[in-house]
Amino acid sequence: MGRNLDIIHSGKIAKVTLHSIPNEPGIAAHIFNQLGNHGISVELISQTSTTAKSTDISFAVVEIDLGQVVSLLQRIRDSIGAKRISFNRDVAMISIHGSDLEAKPGIAGKIFSALAAKGINIEMISTSVSSITCVVAQQKLELALEAIDALFRNT
Fold first, then answer.
1. Which residues have C-beta within 8 Å of that of residue 53, sequence separation ≥ 6?
2. Strands, DSSP E only, in the chain?
3. 6-10+91-153 CATH, one of 3.30.2130.10, 3.40.50.2300, 3.40.50.150, 3.30.420.10
4. First and final C-alpha spacing in the chain
5. In whole angstroms, how far apart are CA 113 and each of 108, 117, 119?
6. What secondary structure letter does DSSP report for 27?
7. pTM of the model
8. 135: which of 45, 89, 110, 124 fits an S-S bond (Cβ 3.0–4.6 Å)?
């Protein structure tokens, strides 16, 4: 691994998705304020607008909090207008951090290609100037770590 890159991973993650919620100001604030007010930390958030009027919000939490998260979301479901709540407790999160990412154009595509070459589907992605985070199937975590490590050894 490059001297300015680190990989952090966690296998005890759950992905939660709120489907077809209104695409309106304040809905996300309400959801994540409620989670925070109940002592639940969110590891990653991804939002996808499905239409001009609705959106899906997925987020990752530590697996041990999943029961509390689902219970809370079921209580506020009507107030946020969610059509459906789904979750997957069999996921892991991998984050690559470091200043070297900014200096490597196209690195996200290379990481995604390395994972795809090993048959690993990415369920969630978050990127910034200095980090790339992916949520993948729990059973693929070790294979994903090997693929990413090999990529950086060769770049």
1. 22, 23
2. 6-22, 42-49, 54-62, 84-97, 122-128, 131-137
3. 3.30.2130.10
4. 9
5. 9, 6, 10
6. H
7. 0.88
8. 124
Beta bridge partners of 54: 22
| DSSP state letter for 65 | G
Strand order across the 6-22 sheet: 42-49, 54-62, 6-22, 84-97, 131-137, 122-128
Q: Which tokens hold the place of 27?
A: 């809905």
Q: Are 146 and 136 in contact (CB under 8 A)?
A: no
Tokens 């459906």 correspond to what residue?
84
Fold of 13-89: Alpha-Beta Plaits (3.30.70)
Q: Do residues 101 and 5 touch, judged by C-beta distance below 8 A?
A: yes
Give me 1's structure tokens: 């691994």
Length of the chain: 155
- Break the chain into its structural domains and give their ranges: 6-10+91-153, 13-89
pLDDT by 10-residue block (mean), the chain, 155 residues: 75 95 93 97 89 91 96 95 95 90 84 97 91 96 95 78
